[in-house]
Amino acid sequence: MNIKPLRLIAGLALVASTAAYAQSYPTKTITMIVPFAAGGPTDTVARLVGQSMSKSLGQQVIIENVGGAGGTIGAARVAKADPDGYTVLLHHIGQSTAPALYRKLTYNALDSFEPVGLITDVPMTFVARKDFPAKDFKELLAYVKANKNKVTYANAGVGSASHLCGMLFMSAIDTDLTTVPYKGTGPAMNDLLGGQVDIMCDQTTNTTSQIKSGKIKAYGVTTKSRVASLSDLPTLHEAGLPNFEVAVWHGLYAPKGTPKPVVDSLSKALQTALKDATVKQRFAELGTEPVAEARATPDAHRAFLKAEIDKWSPIIKKAGVYAD
Q: Which residue windows are coiled coil (predicted)?
C-alpha cells in the first residue's frame, strides 16, 4: 500500500481542521493569567489591554492573578495549559530573568510558549517613604552609603522588576542594603506608604499617582530620557548615577503548540488594543506608552525575548543571585 497519499490526505485534513478552528476562535471566555498580585503594575497593564482585546475578539478576556515565586507559578500554569488560545500569559521582564534566577524552572521561558507580542516598555522610578531624610538623589546616595546597615529596600519578591532594579542599583553603588521581599508590588508599596520600609524602585504604572499626590518621595527615573508625566523628575543619569538604565517591558504569550492562526488572531487583537485611545491615554497617565506595532508581533517578540535572556543571564549569574 502506498501510504504517501494517506499522509497527504491526513495533512490536508489537519490544515483544514486548524483553519476552521481559527475562523471560529474565540467561542468562549479567554483567561489572561497575570503572575503577580492584583493591584500591581503588571495587573494594571493586563486589565487595560484585556478590556480592549475583549471588544475586538468578541469574547470576554478575564484576568486571573496567580502570584508567587517571582511570576514563575503563573507562567508554569500557562505553559501546561491546553494550547487552544483560551489561556494566555501577560508577563513582564521577569520572563527573561527567570532562567538565570531559578535553578528548577518547570518550563522553558522561550520554548514553552508562543510569543504573541510586546505591549509596553515601562520606566521605573526610584522612590522613598515620604519622610525619608534625603532631599535629592545625591543626598540619597550619601545617606544610603553612610547608613547601609539601617536602610531597608523593598521589592516585590525574587525575580520581580523591583528586585532586579534594586540588584543593579546596589551593584552600581557597590553597597549592599537590607532587602525586604514581598509577595507583590501592591503590599510593598503599602508598607512604603506606611513608612515601614525606606526605599524602593518601581514602575511608573504603580508610582506616578503616589508621587503626584505627595505620598512618597521621588528621586529619579531609570530611563535615558525624562518621562512626560513626571517631567520635573530627573533621570538617574542626570541625578548622579551615570548610565543607570532599566525599563520593564510587558509581553503576551500563549502555550507552546497553540495554532498559528489563533496566535495571529490574538496578536491582531493586541495590536488593535495598543491603538485604542483609552489605552493610550491611561498608559500616558501612568508614565508609559504602547510599543510600535512592529514590536507587537509574534516574531518580533520571540527575537526580543531571546535577546533579553542573553542580556540578563550573565548579569544575574555574576551577581550570584539565585532562587530555588
A: none
Any idea of the CA torsion for 291, 102, 182, 145, to the nearest 10 degrees?
Answer: -90
Where do the structural domains in the chain lie, given as residue ranges?
28-122+249-319, 123-239
CATH architecture of 123-239: 3-Layer(aba) Sandwich (3.40)
**Over the range 24-63, which residues count as b (16 or more CB within 10 Å of their CB) and which as e?**
ebbeeebbbbbbbbeebbbbbbbbbbbbbbbeebebebeb
11 CB neighbour count, 10 Å cutoff? 10
DSSP state of 297: S
What's the predicted TM-score (pTM) here? 0.79
Query: Are 28 and 86 a contacting pair, CB within 8 Å?
Result: yes
- pLDDT at residue 18 greater than cutoff 70: no
| Amino acid letter, residue 72 | T
